[in-house]
Amino acid sequence: MSKVAVLKTTPETVIADYKRLLDMAEFTKHIPRDKPVILKDNISWHYMFPGANTTPWQLEAVIQYLQDNGYRDISAVHNETVVINAPKGQRLNRLDKVYARYGIRELMNYEPNDMKWIRYEPKAKMQALDSIFPEGIMIPDYFFGKSIVHLPTVKCHIYTTMTGAMKNAFGGLLNTRRHYTHSVIHETLCDLLAIQQEIHTGIFAVMDGTTCGNGPGPRCMVPVQKDYILASADSVAIDCVSTHLMGLDPHAVKCVWLAHELGLGVGKFEEIEVVGEDIRNEHFGFSVGSTFASHVGHTMWFGPMRPIQKLFFHTPIVNIFILGSYLYHDYFWYRVKGMPRVREWLETPWGRLFETYG
Fold first, then answer.
1. Is residue 345 part of a domain?
2. Which residues, 6 or more positions from 76, have their beta carbon under 8 angstroms from its beta carbon?
3. DSSP letters along 140-157, please?
4. Burial class (CB in 10 A: 0-12, 13-18, 19+), 75
5. What are phi and psi of 305, to 5 degrees?
6. Domain containing 84: what range?
7. Could you write out the DSSP letters of every residue in 281-346?
8. Is residue 164 part of a domain?
9. Residue-by-residue DSSP string for 8-76
């Protein structure tokens, strides 16, 4: 039976609570001390937006725990997307200051001097990736023989209903052509988890739910203070528990139950050992909803335009959609709706804690 640790926390005790959480989830049992560890934070938006990105206290607590427990070879790997600026995201979310404070090397999976992309032939039967990339599945050589710690948040997602530990591998293991997989995103996430289990010496997820994201995530959300933190060595199980907490329909999160059927983890809530808080009756009542951008995406990836999606996304025409997404999210939604929500959140206890990382 897979174990997921869940705790309630406060801004005053969050670092200590995270360390207790990791002990409860038996971190040192699953992540060997004698192997290098990769930290894979989650930057869903280069702007600071509560609930969307790894929090600085989440990152700091994990780094402290690693160093306190004798882990010495620690690095962080970042990725770019066609609409997200990784260095800007690290800076605006104050994560760069945490990495610098503890002497953690930051590497970019898109920088040839940091790592190279090599062809990989998975041992597991692929659900989608081999057909999406018939010329070969390319992943970074740096990931082999190392453990990985994912640092997602509790939030909804327009394409996968919820996004967490399984989705966090999407940016690190696939290059900027990963948008080719959106119409089979759930199968892709299962493939990536199978690949992770083949190449990593350990996999662990530490999820921040101090402020959660309700609505059309991973960006255009309503931040909701919930004060939860979660941890597990089973990416499927922690995503299942997160789905349960948010009150989302578990049948809508295909990647979780498909991964369960494929034996990649435990995706049934009643079969997971939840330690810490009793969350059996906890449901946030979240729903994904939609925005103009998500409606266009669904039409292209899953709706009537799906048969000709290659015309739009495998050709230079894709740049029109990239520009449209950039203008909509960064210059319309964030300025009109996002910034007022950020200002309001900065007046909360978690917002005041964030300011201390400045």
1. no
2. 38, 39, 40, 41, 99, 104, 105, 106, 107
3. EGGGTT-EEEEE-EEEEE
4. middle
5. -90, -5
6. 3-289
7. T----------HHHHHHHHHHTSTTGGGHHHHHSSTTHHHHHHHHHIIIIIIIIIIIIHHHHHHHT
8. yes
9. E--TTTHHHHHHHHHHHTTHHHHS-TTS-EEEEE-BS-SS--TTTB--HHHHHHHHHHHHHTT---EEE
97 lies in some domain: yes
Note down pLDDT in tens along the chain; length 358 residues: 899 999 999 999 999 999 999 999 999 999 999 999 999 999 999 999 999 999 999 999 999 999 999 999 999 999 977 677 889 999 999 999 999 999 999 999 999 999 999 999 999 999 999 999 999 999 999 999 999 999 999 999 998 999 999 999 998 888 756 667 778 999 999 999 999 999 999 999 999 999 999 999 999 999 999 999 999 999 999 999 999 999 998 888 999 999 999 999 999 999 999 999 999 999 999 999 876 555 555 565 566 666 656 655 566 766 676 677 888 889 899 999 999 999 999 999 999 999 999 8
pTM check: above 0.90 = yes
Whichever domain contains 165, its CATH number is 3.40.50
- Number of domains forming the structure of the chain: 1
The answer to whether residue 224 is domain-embedded is yes
